[in-house]
Design goal:
Blueprint (H helix, E strand, L loop, with lengths): L3 E7 L6 H11 L4 E6 L6 H11 L5 E5 L6 H14 L4 E4 L11 H8 L4 E5 L6 E3 L3 H18 L11 E4 H5 L12 H12 L4 E5 L1 E3 L10 H16 L1 H6 L1
Parallel strand pairs: 1-2, 1-4, 2-3, 5-8, 6-9
Antiparallel strand pairs: 4-7, 5-7
Helix pairs in contact: 5-8, 7-8
Length: 241
């Protein structure tokens, strides 16, 4: 039987995390979830620790870190945790309800014949709700910019709802990933494509968070633009590592 793990990074997600776990397990109750918490000031980790004992024993796990170390390093830590425990399929997923758990079965269907499945807002059937014009422009523009600069035919370069085969992650050399912010998603997708692996974009409707605070900022966005240029200039390095 294939083992599946969903990795969810958290930082001040106490308002969301318990309900999200309920939603995931209502969709599929035989998978495991790893919360990577960056020592949330709102004590998100205490909610997880309680649920591990009371409700989701041997299905829910936590990797608590010393502080806010960034999205990319959270996922790298989660990937290594998954590989050490022989999971076959490994998901990335946000904690803020923007990634609807109802799509999980479709991801699991597609990952059987692909190396990476991306939940895409920009393929037919995909989209976003509760976004203003500026947010839509930044997101779609960021993916278009990445596609043009990097020359890879990926419609949604920046999305963070995806599923990897374990062999895909094993081929990426996780210690050589250089991005840590939102460009982390771009780098992962680009490396998978450069290595000739099979990518599937499956449509999702992305809903903006209703509780908690977005982690996006102008600084993060500008860093991502510059990092994409770095990736193009270092294409050979990324392909070989």
């Amino acid at each position: 039987m294939k083992k599946t793990l969903i990795i969810i990074p958290t930082y001040n997600e106490s308002e969301n995390v318990e309900k999200l776990l309920e939603m995931i397990y209502q969709v599929k109750n035989d998978l495991n979830i790893l919360i990577v918490d960056d020592n949330s000031p709102d004590k998100t980790y205490e909610i997880i620790e309680r649920l591990m004992e009371e409700k989701y024993k041997d299905r829910l796990f936590i990797h608590k870190r010393s502080g806010k170390l960034g999205l990319g390093t959270a996922y790298i830590a989660g990937f290594k945790w998954a590989l050490e425990r022989d999971y076959n399929y490994i998901f990335e997923m946000d904690a803020d309800f923007s990634h609807n758990p109802k799509y999980i079965p479709e991801f699991l269907k597609e990952i059987e014949t692909h190396d990476l499945v991306i939940g895409s807002r920009y393929v037919p059937g995909g989209g976003v709700v509760n976004w203003g014009i500026i947010r839509k422009f930044i997101s779609r523009g960021g993916s278009l910019y990445s596609r043009i600069v990097l020359g890879a035919p990926i419609k949604d370069f920046t999305g963070g709802f995806k599923c990897f085969k374990r062999e895909t992650l094993e081929n990426l050399n996780l210690d050589k990933i250089v991005s840590n912010g939102y460009s982390f998603q771009v780098e992962l997708n680009y490396k998978v494509w450069l290595k000739g692996m099979k990518i599937k974009e499956t449509p999702i409707i992305f809903e903006d968070r209703t509780l908690g605070k977005s982690k996006m900022s102008k600084k993060i966005f500008l860093e991502a633009i510059l990092k994409v240029l770095w990736m193009r200039a270092n294409k050979k390095f990324l392909k070989e590592n």
